[in-house]
Amino acid sequence: MCSWQGLDSAVTDANAQLDAIIAAHQGREGPLLPILHEVQRAFGCIPEDAIRHIAHALNLSRAEVSGVVGFYHDFRRAPEPLPVIKLCRAEACQARGSDALARWAEEAAAGRVAIETVYCLGLCSVGPSAMVGSEVHARLDPAALDQLIERAA
Amino acid sequence: MRLFVSDDAAAVACGADAVAARADALGAEVVRTSSWGLHWLEPLVEIETDDGRIGYGPVAAADVDALLAGELEQRRIGDIASHPFIRRQTRLTFARAGRTRPLSLDDYAATGGWAGLEQARAIGPEAIVQQVTTSGLRGRGGAGFPAGIKWETARRAAGPRKYIVCNADEGDSGTFADRMLMEGDPFCLIEGMAIAGLAVGADKGFVYIRSEYPHAIAKMEAAVRLCAHLVAPFEIEVRVGAGAYVCGEETSLLNSLEGKRGEVRVKPPLPAIEGLFGRPTVVNNVLTLAAVPWILANGGPAYADFGSGRSRGTMPVQLAGNIRHAGLFETAFGLTLGELVHDIGGGTASGRPVKAVQVGGPLGAYFPPSLFDTVLDYEAFAARDGLVGHAGIVVFDDTVDMARQARFAFEFCAAESCGKCTPCRLGSVRGYETMARVLAGEDAAANLALIEELCETMTFGSLCALGGLTPYPVLSAIRHFPEDFAR
Fold this sequence. Notes:
The complex is a heterodimer of chains A (153) and B (487). Chain A has 153 residues and is of the alpha+beta class. Chain A folds into two domains: 8-71; 84-152, Glutaredoxin (3-Layer(aba) Sandwich), CATH 3.40.30. Chain A has seven helices and four strands. A four-stranded mixed β-sheet of chain A has the order 2-1-3-4, covered by helices on one side. In chain A, a hairpin with a 2-residue loop joins strand 3 (130-132) and strand 4. Chain A is elongated. Chain B has a five-stranded mixed β-sheet with strand order 2-1-3-4-5, with helices on one face. In chain B, strands 13-12-16-14-15 form a five-stranded mixed β-sheet. In chain B, strands 8-7-6-9 form a four-stranded parallel β-sheet, sandwiched between helices. The radius of gyration of chain B is 23 Å and the shape is globular. Chain B is built from 22 helices and 16 strands. In chain B, strand 14 (354-359) and strand 15 form a beta hairpin. Chain B folds into four domains: 2-87, 3-Layer(aba) Sandwich (Glutaredoxin); 105-304, Rossmann fold (3-Layer(aba) Sandwich); 311-393, Ubiquitin-like (UB roll); 402-484, Up-down Bundle (de novo design (two linked rop proteins)), CATH 1.20.1440.230. The mean pLDDT of chain B is 97. Classes of the chains: A alpha+beta (153), B alpha/beta (487). At the A-B interface, helix 2, helix 4 and helix 5 of A face helix 1, helix 11, strand 8, strand 12 and strand 16 of B.
């Protein structure tokens, strides 16, 4: 579980940052997803403490906020310890050999990089494709993928 | 020397940024434009000459020195506007593709931008809806529902506050036209939304973009800021999804916008009457809204002049997967699947025979070459137990195993089900398990019979298209490729 509890000063800083994020979005219609996105950008995950805090600020129950966090693939409750490469495994990339490429990627990554499955990056005309952060890569073959993995690791 | 290089994500993913950087370092003036949609040639570089722009592609960063020295003639494509792939298209929605700078208000205005909005302001709500109805425009997201009827319903609905919601949660594999439009011509979408706002009396719009599209998000956010004064008092906010395919379904998208789990709502009430925050809401796909400026500027009847049967206007077809000429092909409805795959797409990229094409995303049917006479038209596809959907065409060569594709359809549904209804939530998992047994050669006939029954339950018992249409790829694979299931 991702948490900032520990040092008192760290808790104060994190709470202040969280308050600022909530304040920036609270006036918007339907503020929860924008808040969660920004919390994850700031902390690398949605910490349990943040869920309590956000629920209180938006007058929601913790279960409601937790349910939203759990519903969406993007939100994590714990930070991802490894660098992540998102490899598209949807049909258009399958047609260009992404299944074999995924097996190759797992071996090449050897536990140093997390190879995550994503269903479609909208690069279906130039697959197989992958995303690292917000960087996109297309026409991947084992050699190009090796390079991506070595750079990320 | 002046060069044109696209900054579309597909071009960037193929190395366009490195190409642009190298050209810049060599002293060339680099203009970043939208993509023409000839993706097999990306990164495509056009050089300005006395005879117009001359295209070269694909160009890698390592080729740029030779290109500028005039030594890359083997990659010379020539004038892109007169390339057969472009000349055979009817580009109404993508008229600016490849030609303009996406975030240039000057380029937009110089190519007819805002003419539709101006016309809309002049004629007023009832006449706007009339034009859209006359055009025959149907929802381009997949459902094909007449846009005019949806707008009229929202226009007549009472309420001081109404919304326009643009569904930019383009999750279907094989589709990328929404992404290209947002990255290449964002003002066109904004103009369409502003017209919709005028038509139904809404002053607020949301663009809900999937998080897998960071380039589109950045472009739309910038464009919204740049033209806020031109569409005021209409206001637009860009919202980012969080990795849930089902949020492309309009009611789960509305829940997501409200900050809830993206679960499907039961209809009725229709969103046009009771949508976002319970208020009248028009939910339209990117391509539906982006078609509207042209319709207003040129008139509904002019749009309706294109097309086939009850499918009027043009459809930006996306040629994807294992296809030689992959990219965007906007055409009036009426071409056959075979023309699109072979004549225009050039067959497979691998050079092997085409075995199957999936049309309309992960919920669309697989078609064998024997059905390539099917005409691109909502009704013609429905008549063959398929769907046009968002018009993504994914080509597979003869190495594909259709039983695995059928299993994947269930796997995808299980991963993306919102969990609200049982046929989808449980049916997908049981379907996956049963198809795995077929793949393992365990009593294929009995298990396939079970799958047929399960598909019937999913078709008729699911709340939305995810569970309701997953049987399409499954049953079409079984029906058209029985040899792959006899194991």
